[in-house]
Amino acid sequence: MLKKSFFNVGVLALGLTLGLGGISAAHAKPKVTETIKTYPVSATSLAGLAQEMDKKGPKSYWAYTTWYVKWTGDCKLSVTVDIILPKHKNPSKMPADVRKKFDSMLAALTEHERQHGRHGIAAAEEIERAGCAGGDAIIKKYNAVDIKFDKTTDHGRKKGVTLN
């Protein structure tokens, strides 16, 4: 997995090619499966939340996304997107201003992670349009898109992934 930021993403894409005989021009859309898992946080201050997410987050990140693209010899594609996010155990324990900032950060973080997942879906769609030819290169292209996305958004900070 490529670990890409303090806040978020590791992206790994795998293509399984099993021969390309019998590919037709018309394909169904790739099957997409998205799962969101959470890890608990319970701090009630911004500094405490940041510290707890640093410690408890997946691979020391606040959130983590992986996407996997698979295809068969007859060019049937599937995409699995797995997102791990923080979830407060008892949000009513947070002071109102802290909760508002946490909720805002979490919404931005969720959107940021979902965008990474959309990159995986776009990779699968492009592989499908190519008749499953050149899939590994397409996956590398979308891994680069993820890296550029993190760079241009400062890993989501420019889009609200912050507790400041």
Automatic annotation (TrEMBL):
GO molecular function: peptidase activity
Record keywords, A-Z: Hydrolase, Protease, Signal
Signal sequence coordinates: 1-28
GO biological process, one term: proteolysis
Pfam family, one: DUF922
Name of the protein in question: Putative secreted Zn-dependent protease
Top-level taxonomy: Bacteria, Pseudomonadati, Pseudomonadota, Alphaproteobacteria, Rhodobacterales
